[in-house]
Specification:
- With 212 residues, this protein is α/β, with parallel strands linked by helices.
- It has 2 domains: 127 residues, Response regulator (Rossmann fold, 3-Layer(aba) Sandwich), CATH 3.40.50.2300; 59 residues, Arc Repressor Mutant, subunit A (Orthogonal Bundle), CATH 1.10.10.
- It is built from 9 helices and 5 strands; from the N terminus they run βαβαβαβαβααααα.
- Helix 4 links the parallel strand 4 and strand 5.
- The chain is elongated.
Length: 212
């Protein structure tokens, strides 16, 4: 993914604007996908690389703001830049509050758009990296035994080895062994690391009285 050039997706019903944006973006080394409507965009797969969406507000059928709402509901997390020749302050404020990176009125400066694209792509890189890290973390979690997961949750909740031993009915030395295995398998360098991992995995509510 990191080796692939970023992809900028343009959704605008004006062919001239689509072609002008394509020329600008390709001139700075970006890959471009062009669509004339929300329906066309939704029918195409998203590239597995850093990407952002340049979106006209007024489109045939569903509007750009409609799409923003749909993607937010689906938790898609795709960074958006709105462009429009018919915008107003309430519209721009609403789009920005809903998470848009920028709201540009046509005609806009090329550099303003390029700056907004850089911000959007940086945001998506961070999102993709976070998703990859979460996947790796859950893969490591799957290597734990049921008892190790139980100990993991209790250690992360702040229990001491002696307390854990009493709660789950094993010897304290057994807890220490399980704890060491959890640290090793999860790749944790400290208890602080382990607590952070538990938070990301949402293990806070695990029942410490029985193996999950």
């Amino acid at each position: 993914m990191s080796a692939a050039p970023p992809n900028v997706i343009v959704v605008d019903d004006d062919r001239g604007i689509r072609e002008a944006l394509e020329g600008l973006l390709r001139s700075v080394g970006l890959q471009v996908s062009l669509f004339g409507s929300v329906a066309e965009f939704l029918a195409a797969p998203l590239p597995a690389r850093p990407r952002c969406l340049i979106l006209d507000v007024r489109l045939p059928g569903r509007s750009g703001l409609d799409l923003q709402s749909e993607l937010a509901g689906a938790d898609a997390g795709l960074p958006m830049i709105f462009i429009t020749g018919h915008g107003d302050i309430p519209m721009s404020v609403g789009a920005m509050k809903a998470g848009a990176v920028e709201f540009l009125a046509k005609p806009f400066r090329d550099q303003d758009l390029l700056d907004a694209i850089q911000v959007a792509l940086d945001r998506d890189r961070a999102q993709l990296a976070g998703a990859a890290a979460d996947t790796a973390l859950r893969t490591r979690l799957e290597t734990l035994t049921a008892r190790e997961r139980q100990v993991f949750a209790l250690v992360a909740s702040g229990r001491l080895n002696k307390q854990i031993a009493g709660e789950i009915g094993v010897a304290e030395i057994t807890v220490k062994v399980h704890r060491g295995q959890v640290m090793k398998k999860m790749g944790a360098r400290s208890i602080v690391d382990l607590v952070r991992m538990a938070d990301r995995l949402d293990l806070a509510g695990a029942d410490g009285r029985r193996a999950p």
